[in-house]
Structure formats: structure tokens, C-alpha cells
Amino acid sequence: MIKLSQPSFTEEQITSVVEVLKSGMLVQGKKVLQFEELLSDYMNGPYVVAVSSGTAALHLAMIALGISKGDAVFVPDFTFPATANAVELVGARSIMVEVDPSTYCITPETLLAAIKGFEGPEKPKAIIPVHEFGAGVAMDQVMDIAREHGLFVVEDAACALGTQINGRFAGDFGHMGCFSFHPRKSLTTGEGGAITTNDKSLYLELLKLRNHGIEYSNQSIDFVVPGLNYRMTEFQAALGITQVEYFKRMLNIRFEIAQQYQQLLKDIEMFQLPENLDGHSWQTFMIVLNEEYDRRTIINELKSREIETNLGAQALHMLSYFKQKYAYHENDFSVAARLFKHGLAIPIHDKLTASEINKVSEQLVRVLRSIE
Length: 372
Hints:
Elements: H1 11-23, H2 30-42, E1 47-51, H3 54-64, E2 71-76, E3 78-79, H4 82-89, E4 93-97, H5 108-117, E5 123-127, H6 139-149, E6 152-156, E7 164-165, E8 168-169, E9 176-180, E10 193-197, H7 200-209, E11 214-217, E12 220-223, H8 234-244, H9 247-265, E13 271-272, E14 285-289, H10 295-304, E15 314-315, H11 320-326, H12 334-342, E16 343-346, H13 354-370
Parallel strand pairs: 2-4, 2-5, 5-6, 6-9
Antiparallel strand pairs: 1-10, 3-15, 7-8, 9-10, 11-12, 13-14, 14-16
Helix pairs in contact: 1-8, 2-8, 3-4, 3-7, 9-13
């Protein structure tokens, strides 16, 4: 089976985890600190707080900014639900924003339309732009809009470690950037995540919030805020440390695979290819099938040919919780709805061979032509 995504671990990486397990020091110690420092160096110097998941990162970011009941936060309608769940968990209201049909991200135009069209008792407080699948949002313009309207910006860069936008890393534009190290990500620690910020006061607040609200001073501790247990384990950090060194190489491999797909599939009219943005980190390669095709049929047929595929992300306004709470209709966000219903993620990971890339491309086209 050609897997949709497949983590790749060397013997060195496995040994590093075993050594941590043997040491008996398992939670948030020197390895976590080293992992944070390596990530900071890689991203040119922001403060980094490692946490237990990308969702934990988003949740802590909302808490650190004081977002709560009575506030509204603008989020893309096409994303994994964790983006908006973090908003809902602090009692705020998620305001959906339409996305671009070829990058799958919000644009300055769709964001402005959502801000200007917002009606409700809540106070707009923040924006969470998502760098969907590693495609960079136009962050310079988003930051201009945020400043004009007095909004915080938390970048959901769960899929975008290594993504560059005009020479800067995704996650480095807003007040905070949130990353995930889930097994489908380019760098994985099994679960795990991180928050980046250039604001020291936010950094210090995040350190307390991820660890039960503890503040250290003069070799003593105090519990100064109601915090959470969102700490990263030492063995997760050990796994991450060994991957940072090779991360640029892994990104280059993904880039080459994406370019091969773009070349092999460029003349096929049965689906739309993703926009080939500069700086894209290609965590996922999602095509959009023409509407006459049933995606489930395509997925099952490709599976029978030993190729794993899946949907890309969700249109939040079509999910039960958001649909029922905010009385959304399917046609409220037509682009996101189309991406949700017809997006098809195809295999991309650093173990893919050239022959497998060719097989995926050829069999995809054959399956679609066989059911025209």
C-alpha cells in the first residue's frame, strides 16, 4: 500500500527515545528545552514553548490573550476543527471566513468581507489565519488589517513548519504562531506542538499556563494562575531533536514530490491542482475533483489499487456543532463547501519513490476516466 503519509524514523532517532526512557526523566526537562532552542534557531530566534499538541498550542494562545465569552475570533471555514474548537473552548464565538479556491487559505479580501459583515453582540478580538497544508497566507496584508481593526493575530501553522512568506517563516508574523507535530506533519513527535512568539511577556505567560500555572522564583514555586498540564514529554522532544537537523532535507523532498505531481497532472481536466505557491512546505497535496465525481468511490477504487487517499479538511459551517449553534446553511461558504466535499489528498511523504509517484498519478487518472 502506498500510504497517504508515513513517518520516517532512523535508528538514531529510535535510540534517542530509548535512552530517554532508560533515564527515567520523562516529562519536560532538558530535552524539551533543547528542542525549543533548536526550533528557535531554525526559525531565526522567536521564543518557543513546546506543548502536548497543536490543539493545546491554540488553546493556550487564546487563554494567554485573554479571549473569552463576549469575544469573537475570525477563523477560516476550511480547516481542521481544532482551529475553531480552541475559540469555542474559551467561550468565545468563531466567525467563519471564506477561503481561496486554489490556495485553500483566507485572503485579505475574504477577511475584510467577514469583518465588515459581522453582526452580533460579541466584540471582534482576534484572527486565526491558517496556513492550510503548508500554503502561506498573505500575512503582510492580514497584519495590516489586524492593526487597522485592533485585532490580535494567532497563526495556525500546524501544517506549516518551514513555510516561507516573502522570506519570513509562517508563525513569525502574528502575536503567536501555533504548530503541530502530529504523525501526518513533516516533523513529528507522535503528538506534540509548539507556540512561537516574539513577545517576551506572552512567552512568560505561556510557560506558566502550560504547567499548572507554576511560577519559579528563588528556587521556590508558586501557583499564580489556573494553568493546564500541556507539557511535552522528554521522549517526544528527543524524537523532535533528531529531526530538526534533517528538516530542510525533508522539506526539499516534499517540494520535489509536489513539483512532480504538478508536472504529471498539469493537463488533466478532471480535477484542479493546488496553487504552486512560493515557500509552500507541502504538508498535504490536495487536488479538487470535478463535482460529477463521487469522492468515496474514488477513494475506495484507489485503495483497491494499493493507494491510500483521503479528504483534505472540513468546512466548519457544515459540521453538526457549528451548523446547529450558528444556524449555518451549506451555501453560506460555497468555496469551503466545495473543497470539503471534493478535495482529495494524495500521498506525499519522504519515503515516496519516483515509481510510486508515477503510479499514484497514473492510477488516479485511470480511475477517473473509468467512471466518466
